[in-house]
Each structure stands twice: as structure tokens, then as C-alpha cells.
Amino acid sequence: MRHKLLVALLLGACAATLCADDWPQFRGAQRDNISRETGLLRSWPEGGPRVLWTVPMCEGYAAAAIHSGRVYVNDYDREQNEWCVRCLALDDGRELWRFREKKRIRPNHGITRTIPAVDGKYVFSLDPKCVFHCLDAKTGAETWRKSLVHDYKAKIPPWYNGQCPLIEDDRVILGIGGDTLLVAFDKATGNEIWRTPNEHKWPLSHSSVMPAELGGVKQYLWCTLFGPLGVRASDGKLLWHHERKFNVAVSPSPLAIGADRVFVTGPYEAGSAMIRVQCTGDTFTTEIIFDWQENEWNAEVHTPILHNEHLFAIGKKKRGLFTCMNLAGNRVWDSGGQAAFGLGSFVMADGLFFVLEGKTGMLRLIEASTTGYQELAHAQVLSGHDVWGPMALSDGKLVLRDMQKMVCIEVGQPATVAQSGADNKHDGGS
Question: Radius of gyration (Cα) for the chain, nearest Å?
Fold first, then answer.
């Protein structure tokens, strides 16, 4: 009885205060763009959330991964022509280490655009020219590397690499292109666990690999310019491919819906589709459930969030409305008349959406409702054009960026020990 009471008290304390969660890779620990943190603020003061630190960054969209109080981010030093991976302290933004490599990269809609993956021991980062680096998470020393171009005959996609690595258990998984579709590398050594042959020579684009279980089989989903596909997680066997052509690039990742559906969307005239993936014996087949053409709805950059049997995302049409859709393909609500977000990013936590306006840097706090758009607060936290980089949330701190800087703001309960200065800026950026 005493043990049960203690557990209840601990759970109650956790519900009343902040419960922290790491954000170790693209779209968070579970790759769903949802943080499990609780105790976040549901209103902001007049001046907006407290700014804990600001750090200069090279122009781009490369966003943060957060693990054990450390922020890991890809960057570029234009003066030295050096590609960098930087490790910052989450509390105050001070730089703990920096990995550097000479690499000339010209601006092309920004220079950096991807997120490292971190497990506390290793940092995995795919640079703009498709060299894959494994670094020591504590020191930044390089442990191993692979070149997708030289080792697998891949081609660097337009606007450089846009893919973020996926880490799971003992492995890190990448989509490749060239003579190989996907590879699972052993995290510690870089040795291949398996590789998937690329018989059709489907090229590398910007979509990132996603974990799923479809038809009772654990698999990895990926999308090329010729459509989504599934690869068996145990041995890399290609299980299925659904033909759907994308023009120039595809950035959003395939999103598994339940045990037998996959939602895909993409830029330009790609539209969106819900695909049923079925398994009979050892054979997988696909069929369209619904198909939204270019004049209906599509997301250009960011993968939707699945929450309470609804999809939430910023659509391309009408200046980027934040939209709620049910799984039957019907629009439930959007932010029309209240806010437009361009190509901004979004993240969910504690029943809330944090959504960025891509053309202004305005951050809006929105109720995670399936019945209507309800804004709770807004604040001007970033500025300039093309504020497209994803966000990361850990320990009540939201890390986000524009084309010049990375900012950390306090969206959880204030720390018990006050930080020194509400806007603690650090030089040493590139």
C-alpha cells in the first residue's frame, strides 16, 4: 500500500511539473514529431517566452538534435570553407566542441538543411555532399565515415543532401540511391548489417527513412522520385513499391498509418495519397485509398503529424494554412482567416502545437484539437525569410532557427535557478 502511494505521489508530481524528454533525431525519439514532455506553458507573457540563448548560424535550415542536455547541429563556416558539426550546451548555448572539415559548398536555397542523429555515444551526420560521418558524442572525434557518392555511386540531389539519418537499436539506416536503395550500418563500426540492391536505379532525393510495422512485418519506409517503398528491417529485402512520380524533389517522408496504410505527400504538383499496403503470405501489394491531386492538398517540406486519428500539417495552397484532416481524406479545419504559415515547421507536445510562420518567424501556440483552430498565444521569436527549419523540444526548452541564428526559448515551467540574462548571446558562430 505504501509503495502504491509513493508511485501515485511521484506520478502526480510529474503531471504537475515538467517531465523532460530527449529529441535525439529528426522528428524526435519516435520519429513522429511529438514530444512526450508535459507541464508546458499554455500561455505566454506579453513579450513572448523567455529567450535563454541565441547563437549565430550559417544560412540554412539545419536544426537541432538534443540528447542529455546537449544540442547537436550541422553548420558551415563560410570564411574557412569548413563544414561543421557543433555541440552546444542546452542550458546556455555555449559551444562544447566542433567537428570541422574543409568542404566548399555554395549557397543554394541555404547551405545546411539536415539534422544529426544521436544516441548519447555517437553522433551521425550526413553532410551536404553526401558524406556520412560518425562522431564521438562527447568529444566530436570522427569514428568512421562513408561516402554515398564514392562507395555507392549515389548522386548528390538538387539543393544538396536533405536526408536525416535514422537510428534504431544497434544500427543507423540511410537511403542511398546509386547502386543501393537502403543500407543499415552497425553504429559502432560502420560495417554493413545489410544493403538493399537498387535494381531500378531510383535516385536519392530529400526524404528521410521512417520506421513502420505493416502487415505484421517490421520495415523501413522511404520515398524516391518514383514513389514510396518498404524494406524489411531484418534483412533489407524490398517488400513493396508503389509507383508515384515526384517532380524534381520529394522532401516529406512516408508516414505509416496503423497496420496497413501509408500517407505520402510532396512538393510542386505531387498532391497526396493514402495507400493501403497489404500482406498475403510473403507477398505485399498496394492500392490507393484516396488521392488528392495538385488542386486539393499537399505539403511541400514537412511531414504531417498523426494525432488522434487525424493528420496535421501545413499545406502548400493558400499561403500555407495549418490544416487538420481525418483519415478518410476530408479536411476538418484549417487556419484560414487567422494565420498563414508559408513553409514553416511545426511540432507537438502536451496537447499543443508549436507552429512557425515561414515568412515572418512568428511562433504560434495552437490547441491540438480535432474540432477547430484555437490559438492560445503567439510571439515574434525569429525573423527574416525562409524560416523553414524544424524545431526540437527538450527539458521545457524549444530550440528553433532562422537563416542567421539558433534560438532557445523557455516553453516549460521556469527553471528553479534563474539563468544569467534573459537573452544570453554567444559568439563563435560561423
Answer: 21
CB 97 within 8 A of CB 112: no
Q: Are residues 426 and 312 part of one domain?
A: yes
Give residue 222's domain range.
209-250+252-300
C-alpha span between 363 and 379 (Å, rounded): 5
pLDDT tens digits, one per residue of 321-332: 999 999 999 999
In angstroms, what CA-CA distances link 71 with 64, 407, 429? Answer: 6, 11, 14
Q: Are residues 215 and 327 in the same domain?
A: no
Residues whose CB is less than 8 angstroms from the CB of residue 9 and which lie 6 or more positions away in sequence, other chains included = none
Query: What is the 8-class DSSP label of residue 251?
Result: -
Q: Which tens digits make up the pLDDT trace of 204-250?
A: 999 999 999 999 999 999 999 999 999 999 999 999 999 999 888 89
In one-letter notation, the amino acid at residue 179 is D
> Could you tell me if residue 188 is inside a domain?
no
Which pTM does this prediction carry? 0.92
Rounded Cα–Cα distance for residues 211 and 253 (Å): 10
Tally the C-alpha atoms within 13 A of residue 325's C-alpha that lie toward its C-beta.
Answer: 25
Pairing verdict, β 34-35 and 346-349 = parallel
Which CATH number belongs to the domain containing residue 329 in this structure?
Answer: 2.40.128.630
- What are the grid coordinates assigned to 41, written together? 506553458
Residues 295 and 312 placed together within one structural domain of the fold: no
